Structure formats: C-alpha cells, structure tokens
Amino acid sequence: MRAPRGQHFLIDRRAVEKIAGFVDVSGRRVLEIGPGEGILTRALLERGAEVIAVEIDPALVEELEVTFADEIERGRLDIIRGDARKVDLPPFDIVVANLPYSVSAKITFRLLSIGFETAILMYQKEFVQRMIAPPGTSNVGRLSVMVQTYASVKPLLELSPSAFRPKPQVRSWVVRVMPHEPPYPIVDREVYADVVRVLFSNRRKTVRKGLQSGRAAFPPGTIEGAILDLPAELLQRRPQDLSLEEFAMIANRLTGC
Which HAMAP family match (predicted)? Predict the structure, then answer.
C-alpha cells in the first residue's frame, strides 16, 4: 500500500507492542489519529480498547473497513474519515497515535484544548526537543510554552527511520503527554495564547516591542496599559527568556488583572 500525504507507516512490530503497552487501554475509548494500515489499531484492539480511528485518506479508510470489518460490526472500532485538525470527534479517554509530522503542532494544540487523560504520541524527534525545551535555550518557542503550560511531556522511546515504510529522513520519539492545570493562574486562556503567539512571532524583539508590534491582536489601549504596569526589566527581555509565570503575568495584565 502506498504512503499517502507524506505519511510513514510504522512497520516495527516490537515498537508497536511497546507503544500499545505504555498505557492500559483495556475497556477504554482510545483515539488513534492516522491509523494508516492499522498495525497499531490491531494492537490496541487486542488489548481490549474501543478504538476511534481518524484517517484522512479515503483509500486507507476503505482498506481499514475491509480489514477490520468484524471489529466494526461488533462496535469495537469506529473509523472516521476526515482531517483530525477539524473533524468532529466523539468522546474519548486516551490518545495513542503516530501523528503525521506535518500537522503535529495543530493536532497537539487541538487535543490539549479538548482534554484527555493521557496520550502516547509519536513525533519527529526535533519536534519533541522543542516541546520540552526550557526557557533560555535555543529550541524554546511557542510550542514549548503552550505545551508546558497545559501538560507534562516524557520521552519513552526513540525510533530510527528503519521502523517505517517509507523511511523518513528523521528519527522519531514516542512520548507520554499528561495534561495538567497551568502552574500559574491564567485569567483568559485565549489572551494567553495570543500573547505567546504574538511574542514568538517577534522573537528577536524585546517584549515591549513585540507587544507593540502585535497590538492588532488585542483590544485598543490594552497594550499601552499593560506596558505601563509591567516591570521594566521584563519588558527589555526576549520572549525565549521568559518563564511560564511571566507569560501568565503579561496575559493577565492585558485582561486588566
């Protein structure tokens, strides 16, 4: 079977067994994004999961419907054809997925906004390194701040290109993502997300200049008021040097708190 839309099929069965076994899925509703040929789908079903598989490619959906016809009839597998970034999703408890590399960030943000108990997700290694990058390091960015604000990420397994068909040009990491409440109070999560986005869109500028450059994203006058209320030392720093607490402080000032 071909690999559509840049997808790389996981073929290493030992890796599949490890991934499917990182969390107890028995009797749980498990969301799988990008099931491909269904090798991980089968491992999850064998462990007693009720699987919701979201696949964007119609040819793969047809193949999966034939391969897993019995499981679909028994109500243990629901295959949804669509884009995981925007398709309606039924309730689920756990996520186990080999995410398409090209849309990893958007799907991750969506999953965090929906909520789940735990997720076992596969990403490009470099992507994970950005997810877990601490403040003040070269890899820190919007992804780092947004993920670390709402979840903890723990690498579990590294896979070489030979674990896939066709072989990607990069190594992959499987991680456990555990949602948690923000470590510091955030009055308005949408404002917080806008602050992080605006500042990292102007990452070479100071916080002051970055906020001023992105004033169109906020109600009139709020940027000027926040700048007057924020510590001068903070305003002179770059976004990659800010802590999660300081991002929360900026966002809360913009909401008048």
Answer: 16SrRNA_methyltr_A
